[in-house]
Amino acid sequence: MKFEEEHRKEILACLSQNGFIKTQFSFRKKKGRIFIHIDDRMEWFSFFKKSSFFIDPDSLKRVDIGFFEIQTTATAMLKLNLWADVIREFNKWLKAI
User: Fold this and answer.
1) Centroid of chain to Cα 3
2) What are phi and psi of 58, to 5 degrees?
3) What DSSP character marks residue 21?
4) What is the pLDDT at residue 1?
5) Paired strand residues for 54
6) 3-state secondary structure (DSSP) of residue 28
7) What is the pTM of this model?
8) 66: which residues sit within 8 A by CB, 6+ positions away?
9) What does the alpha-carbon distance between residue 73 and residue 45 come to, in Å, rounded to a whole number?
10) Distance between CA 13 and CA 11 in Å, rounded?
11) CA 75 to CA 83: how far, in whole Å?
């Protein structure tokens, strides 16, 4: 997954709205997943966009589908349909730390 510019801007805006600065966090990409780490803690938030498609049997046209997966622990995963939902969950995570 590419870390898109508009996603990066929204994430940085969330950080500043919640009283954080960019230098408190590090960003990395691993196997397509974007990880956001708090530098002085062991906590992290990650997201990944999964894209797929299927062929509609009636029209024989390609139908693109996709969703976001987010994680804040190694075992907890949440699937979301919209980027706005990812931002909402990111804001919740920031408020909880």
Assistant:
1) 9
2) -80, -50
3) -
4) 59
5) 63
6) strand
7) 0.81
8) 49, 50, 51, 52
9) 8
10) 5
11) 21
Helix 83-96 to helix 5-17 angle (10° resolution) is 30
Contact by Cβ (8 Å): 48, 55: no
Token pair in block for residue 77:
């995963």
- For 14-42, how does the pLDDT look when each residue is reduced to its tens digit (9 = 90+)? 999 999 999 999 999 988 899 999 888 88
Residue 83 identity: W
Compute the distance between CA of residue 11 and CA of residue 41 in angstroms, rounded to an integer. 19
Q: What is the DSSP letter of 4?
A: -
CA distance 84 to 58: 32
Please say whether the beta carbons of 47 and 33 come within 8 A: yes
